[in-house]
Write a structure and sequence with these properties.
heterodimer, A: alpha/beta, Rossmann fold, Alpha-Beta Plaits, 2 domains, 6-stranded mixed sheet, 4-stranded antiparallel sheet, 11 helices, B: alpha/beta, abc type-2 transporter like fold, 5-stranded mixed sheet, 14 helices, 5 strands, elongated
Chain lengths: ~300, ~350
C-alpha cells in the first residue's frame, strides 16, 4: 500500500474577505509526481506555503511526510525541499556558499554537506559556476541553483512552486529530466504549474480554481472526463455517408464532420477503431486514415473549470 | 548564520565602508564649538556667609532665567559631589567673608561648573558676572571659575561620548532593520523560513554580527577622539563596554521591531528617520536637557539615548564609577530587555 505523503482535509485560508483556499482535500502518494494546476490566483501558492509551514491555515489541517504541519513544522521542514516561485537566494554569496549555508541550517554534517553539494551541482550542471556570485548567474542558472538548494538535505518530498515559470522550453525539458531522475530515486514531487505541457508530464493532476478542487486524476483520465470519452478522427472515401451511418451507432457518443474529416467520441478508442473500421467496410466504405486525437489539457481545463 | 551575515556585511562594500569610515569621519568633523542661549541650569548655592547681604545676592541669582537653583549646600565638597553625580551643573560659592570683603574692598564669588558640559559652563560664568555687577556697582564682585573635571573646557570631551551614543543608536538600528527588511524584499526570507532554523536563531545571527560592528565603530570613534583630539578616558573601560553592550542590544532590538512592520528597506529607513531626529535633538547631545522646554523634557527622559549619553559622559569624562551611573544602567537594562523580548516576539517565522 502506498503511503500518503501529503494529506489535507478541509484546508481553508482566508485573507480578510478573500477566500484563497476553500476546503481543500488532497492526498499525494509516495513516489508520484503530483501536479497542481490552476490559473493565476487559484490558490496554488497559498497551498504550498501552508504545506511548507510558512503560512497558517484559517481552518483545516495538513499532514506532510507523516507530521501535522501546524504542530510539528520543523519535522516537516527538515524532510521536504521547497523551491519558491520567486527566486530567493543570496546574490552576494557564491553558488557554493549558498549551498553551504542552506546545508548548514538544515544541519547536514559538514563532510556530507560538501559531498552532497557536489552531487546536486553536478545534477543541475553548475559545477563550473560554483565560485560565481549567485547574483551574476542568468535567470535559468538561478532557477537551477534554486533547485539545487532545495535538495541540499536529501528531502523525500519536493514542493515546487511554478519551477519553470519564465523559463524557455528547452530548459523546461532539462528541468523535467532532473525531476524524472530524482523521482526514480524515490523523491515525491508536488508541482504547482499553469503550463499545460508541464501538467501533461505529471502522474496525477489536481485541477483547482478559485481555491476549490475541481478534479483529481491522471492527465489521460482528466481528458476522458472532460469530453466524455476519447476522440478519433476518420478520413474515409465517403465522409457524408460515414457520418450518417456512425451517428446512429451505439458505441459512438458524438459524431461531427468538418473539412472532410469525421471526428467521433467513443468510450475507448482502442476497441472502437477495429470495430468501426470493419463496420464501415461491410457498408462499402474504405477508411483511408484513422487518428486518435487527444484534446489538449487546455481544452480540458476550459471545459472543467 | 552569523558567518553568513558577516559575509553579507563585508560583501556589501558601501555599508562596510560606512561601518569603517563613518565613525572616523563623524568624530573628526565634530570639532566645532556649539553655543546658544542656555536656560534653567541646575545650580547649587553654597552660601558660607549667610548674612542678609549675601541673601540679597542669592535672591538676585534666583531671578536669572539661566540658573535654576535647586540645592543649598554648606561646603564646596557637598556641591562638588552634587555636580559629580550629575545632579547639578553649577555651584555658586559665596565665601564667609563676602559681606566684609565687599564693604572693605572687592568681594569674590566662585562659580564651579561641570566641565564635562561646556555649553552650560560657558553660559553660566558671564551670567553670574552680570548679576554680580548689577547687584552692587560700588562694590565689585569678582567671579572666578573653578572648573571641576574638564579644565580646558574642550568641546570634544563633551561631544565625543554623545557622538558614540548617537552613532550606536542610529547605525546598528538602520543596518539590522535593512538586513531583515532586505530578506523580505528580495524574497530570501521565504527560502530561509522554509528551513527548520528557528526565528530566534535567524535573529541572533544578525544580532551578533551587528553587535560586533557596533563595538568596532565605538572603538574606532573613541580611538580617534583619544589620539587625534586628546580625549582622556578617565573611567573604567569595562564599564564602558558594559554600557555599549546593553545599549547596542536595545538599538538592534528596536531595529528589528521597525523591520517587522516594513516590507522593504525603504520603508524601514523611512520609519527610522523621524525617530532618529527626535533622539538626536532631545537626548541632551548638543544642548542640556534642563534648558529645554518643560513640554519636551518628558520625551527626553524616556529616550534611552539620554541615559546612554549621560552615562558615557560621566564615565569617560568624569571617571565616574558604577555607583554614579546605576540609574542609567537600570533604565537601559530594563528598556533593553523589554525591546529584546518584543523583537523576538515579533520576529515570527511566518509569512502573512
Amino acid at each position: 500500500m502506498t503511503r500518503d505523503v501529503v494529506q489535507t482535509s478541509g484546508l481553508t485560508k482566508r485573507f480578510g474577505s478573500l477566500v484563497a483556499l476553500d476546503h481543500m482535500d488532497l492526498s499525494v502518494k509516495a513516489g508520484e509526481i503530483f501536479g497542481f494546476l490552476g490559473p493565476n490566483g487559484a490558490g496554488k501558492t497559498t497551498t504550498v506555503r501552508i504545506l511548507c509551514g510558512l503560512m497558517v491555515p484559517t481552518s483545516g489541517s495538513a499532514t506532510v511526510v507523516g507530521h501535522d504541519v501546524a504542530k510539528e513544522p520543523d519535522e516537516v521542514k527538515q524532510r521536504i525541499g521547497y523551491m519558491p516561485q520567486s527566486y530567493g537566494l543570496y546574490d552576494d554569496l557564491t553558488v557554493e556558499e549558498n549551498l553551504e549555508f542552506f546545508g548548514s541550517i538544515y544541519r547536514v554534517p559538514p563532510d556530507e554537506r560538501r559531498r552532497h553539494a557536489d552531487e546536486v551541482l553536478q545534477l543541475v550542471r553548475l559545477e563550473e559556476f560554483r565560485r560565481h556570485f549567485a547574483g551574476q548567474l542568468s535567470g535559468g542558472m538561478k532557477r537551477r541553483l534554486s533547485l539545487a538548494v532545495s535538495l541540499v538535505h536529501n528531502p523525500e518530498l519536493l514542493i515546487l512552486d511554478e519551477p519553470t515559470a519564465g523559463i524557455d522550453p528547452p530548459l523546461r525539458r532539462v528541468f523535467w529530466e532532473y525531476f524524472r531522475h530524482l523521482n526514480k530515486l524515490g523523491v515525491t514531487f508536488f508541482i504547482n504549474t499553469h503550463y499545460m505541457d508541464e501538467a501533461e508530464l505529471c502522474d496525477r493532476l489536481a485541477l483547482i480554481n478559485y481555491g476549490r478542487l475541481v478534479a483529481v486524476a491522471s492527465p489521460t483520465e482528466l481528458k476522458r472526463k472532460a469530453i466524455g470519452g476519447e476522440r478519433i478522427e476518420l478520413v474515409t472515401t465517403e465522409a457524408q455517408t460515414t457520418l450518417s451511418i456512425l451517428k446512429d451507432t451505439e458505441s459512438v457518443r458524438e459524431a461531427n464532420l468538418s473539412d472532410g474529416i469525421v471526428s467521433l467520441i467513443v468510450d475507448e478508442s482502442a476497441s472502437a477503431i477495429p470495430k468501426l473500421t470493419s463496420f464501415l467496410k461491410e457498408r462499402g466504405i474504405e477508411v483511408l486514415q484513422v487518428r486518435q486525437s487527444q484534446p489538449s489539457l487546455e481544452d480540458v481545463f476550459i471545459k472543467l473549470v | 548564520m552569523t558567518k553568513k551575515e558577516l559575509t553579507h556585511l563585508i560583501r556589501n562594500r558601501r555599508v562596510f565602508a560606512l561601518t569603517l569610515f563613518m565613525p572616523l569621519l563623524l568624530m573628526t568633523i565634530v570639532g566645532l564649538a556649539f553655543t546658544g542661549e542656555v536656560k534653567h541650569i541646575t545650580t547649587v548655592i553654597v552660601n558660607k556667609d549667610g548674612r542678609p547681604f549675601s541673601q540679597v545676592f542669592v535672591d538676585a541669582l534666583k531671578v536669572s532665567e539661566t540658573l535654576r537653583i535647586r540645592y543649598y549646600a554648606d561646603e564646596e565638597s557637598q556641591a562638588e559631589t552634587l555636580i559629580r553625580d550629575g545632579l547639578a551643573k553649577v555651584a555658586i560659592v559665596i565665601p564667609a567673608t563676602f559681606e566684609d570683603d565687599i564693604k572693605s574692598s572687592n568681594g569674590i564669588v566662585y562659580v564651579m561648573v561641570d566641565g564635562s558640559d561646556p555649553v552650560s559652563a560657558g553660559a553660566v560664568a558671564p551670567v553670574v558676572q552680570g548679576i554680580a555687577l548689577g547687584f552692587t556697582e560700588k562694590l565689585r564682585v569678582q567671579v572666578e571659575r573653578l572648573v571641576l573635571y574638564n579644565p580646558s573646557l574642550r568641546y570634544i570631551d563633551f561631544i565625543a561620548p554623545a557622538i558614540v551614543g548617537i552613532f550606536l543608536q542610529i547605525f546598528p538600528m538602520i543596518l539590522i532593520s535593512m538586513a531583515i527588511a532586505g530578506e523580505r524584499e528580495r524574497g530570501t526570507i521565504e527560502q530561509l523560513i522554509a528551513t527548520p532554523v528557528s526565528g530566534f536563531e535567524i535573529l541572533l545571527g544578525k544580532l551578533f554580527v551587528y553587535m560586533g560592528f557596533g563595538f568596532l565603530s565605538a572603538t574606532s570613534m573613541l580611538v580617534v577622539a583619544v589620539y587625534a583630539f586628546n580625549l582622556v578616558v578617565r573611567g573604567s573601560v569595562l564599564l564602558i563596554v558594559l554600557f555599549l553592550a546593553v545599549f547596542l542590544t536595545a538599538s538592534l532590538s528596536l531595529g528589528t521591531l521597525v523591520s517587522a512592520g516594513s516590507r522593504t528597506q525603504m520603508q524601514a529607513v523611512q520609519t527610522i528617520m523621524p525617530v532618529i531626529y527626535i533622539m538626536i535633538f532631545l537626548s541632551g547631545t548638543f544642548y542640556p536637557i534642563e534648558a529645554m522646554s518643560p513640554l519636551v523634557q518628558p520625551i527626553s527622559y524616556v529616550l534611552p539615548l539620554t541615559y546612554m549619553i549621560h552615562a558615557l559622559r560621566a564615565v569617560i569624562v568624569k571617571g565616574a564609577g558604577l555607583e554614579v551611573v546605576t540609574n542609567d544602567l537600570i533604565f537601559l537594562s530594563t528598556y533593553t530587555i523589554v525591546m529584546f523580548v518584543l523583537a523576538v516576539a515579533v520576529f515570527r517565522k511566518k509569512l502573512e
